[in-house]
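Lab notes, practical 5.
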Amino acid sequence: MPAPIATPPRAKDIAPPEMVAALPAISTELPPDSDLVLVETRHANVPAIGDEGSAAPRPRRVRPPRAQLVEEPLELVETHKVDMQRAE
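Output from the prediction step:
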């Protein structure tokens, strides 16, 4: 007799998730003895890095000429190792 197939738990059988404790509010004040500096960054006012060079258009890329194929007969080259004792 085959083993019974496990069925997934039903929504009624699943326990509700526990509530996560509320996180404290984020403060913008720093302790006076921390020697830290608060820096505010606004991404909308920061210019993009590539904007300085984009004013002048770049020259179009020129493709190199195609390599010329030479019509000649092919050669067969042996590339396996030769046993040194047999070669002597």
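Observations recorded by the TA: The two ends are 71 Å apart (CA to CA). The chain has one helix and no strands.
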